[in-house]
Design brief:
mainly alpha, 69% helix
């Protein structure tokens, strides 16, 4: 087409103009964007330019072809092993596709860059590792990148200890969680449940008092009393919740049975 013929002339400033189009500085239709990518692919000299390679790959990702974007990103890193921008995009594309092997491969590349890319979704890499029976790798990653994690990452970090029944580990890792994440009820719940499982009921009760969500607090109070085999107290913990929410309470005679 016309675009291909123009690009094949390799006119001065061709790369700069293409960069403007690919960055969206010039408003175009999706169809034009697709035709532009096809035309660029037929003029291989353009791919000698690092910025063009990155922009084309990102445009493909934005157009919704995550499979191709992943392949392109990995090829970019193959050409330039320290291309952290392409490594980061490869990870995002792999996450979109939902392929654990690709996520671990692209994630591994990002993590080994001399200058680690910002915004890496460590939790997604850890989730893939867990699904591939590499919980040890996930735990090590989340521990080492603790200060860079999002809430999902901190949930996984504590959750791994909890699933391993490492109650002391849950308490230790919670204590190492930075604010504001340490104030989230989901992490406080892990801490409370670990105290209950570890028979540290005084600590469990103190932890329950720190839960902000009323329903969560009531249910944990019920669970704590039930775990102590205080079935009467557990029943009234539920009744307190039902009563506050205008619901019928459990009859004491029924509860005793």
């Amino acid at each position: 087409g016309v675009i291909n013929e123009i690009l094949s002339l390799n006119i001065l400033c061709t790369r700069e103009v293409l960069a403007d189009f690919l960055k969206g500085r010039v408003v175009t239709s999706i169809e034009f964007g697709q035709k532009l990518i096809i035309a660029i692919s037929k003029n291989k000299y353009l791919f000698a330019d690092l910025e063009i390679r990155r922009l084309v790959t990102r445009k493909i990702y934005q157009l919704g072809d995550s499979d191709l974007a992943y392949w392109m990103s990995m090829k970019c890193v193959e050409l330039n092993p320290q291309d952290q921008v392409s490594a980061s995009l490869a990870l995002e594309a792999a996450i979109k596709v939902g392929d654990d092997e690709r996520i671990l491969q692209a994630g591994g590349l990002s993590l080994t860059m001399k200058n680690e890319p910002s915004g890496i979704r460590y939790s997604k890499i850890a989730e893939s590792a867990i699904r591939k029976n590499r919980a040890g790798y996930a735990k090590d990653l989340l521990t080492r990148r603790r200060m860079k994690l999002d809430l999902e990452g901190h949930r996984l970090r504590l959750g791994l200890c909890f699933q391993e029944e490492d109650w002391k580990g849950v308490e230790t890792e919670y204590a190492r969680t930075p604010k504001p994440f340490s104030e989230d009820d989901s992490l406080k719940t892990y801490l409370t449940l670990s105290h209950i499982e570890n028979k540290k009921m005084a600590k469990a009760r103190a932890s329950i008092d720190n839960i902000k969500d009323g329903i969560e607090r009531d249910l944990l109070n019920y669970h704590q009393k039930y775990s102590e085999r205080d079935f009467y107290g557990a029943m009234w913990a539920l009744n307190a919740h039902f009563s506050k929410n205008g619901m019928a309470i459990i009859d004491e005679e029924w509860g005793n049975n």
